[in-house]
Amino acid sequence: MSDATKGQLEARISEAIIKFEKEYMGRGPMETKSYIIKDMIFVRLKGVLTPAEEQLAKTVDGADLVKRTRVQLLEGARPLLESIVLDITGCRVQSLHTDISTKTGERVIIFTLYQDSQPGFSADK
Length: 125
Fold this sequence. Notes:
This protein has one domain. Helices cover about 45% and strands about 25% of the residues. The chain has 4 helices and 4 strands, in the order H-E-E-H-H-H-E-E. It has helices spanning about 5-25, 50-55, 60-75, 80-90, and strands at about 30-35, 40-45, 95-100, 105-115. It has a 4-stranded antiparallel sheet. It is elongated, with a radius of gyration of 15 Å. The protein starts with 5 loop residues before the first helix and ends in a 12-residue tail after the last strand. The mean pLDDT is about 90.
């Protein structure tokens, strides 16, 4: 992907994650932004909770259930997410970390890439 700029790669990652959220999770985020930082990709999604999850999150037990369910769903989809990153950046994912705020409806996904593979891109203009 050496002909793509960092910004173009970040935009492609965001678009792919939005598509994943819609198709796999059943609802797309209101806003998504991706950042490539050395050997990491940081994805921030806003507005990911469904109305039912927002109701559940009003109690401590419900918020915990939403968090656990979302983590488990994402772990189940890990091969798909790793494939998305590989296809766009040419880099293999070493680890995936995620968390969701049941208060703000924001989710973060962090991909760490193998040390020997960092996204290749041309300098932003």
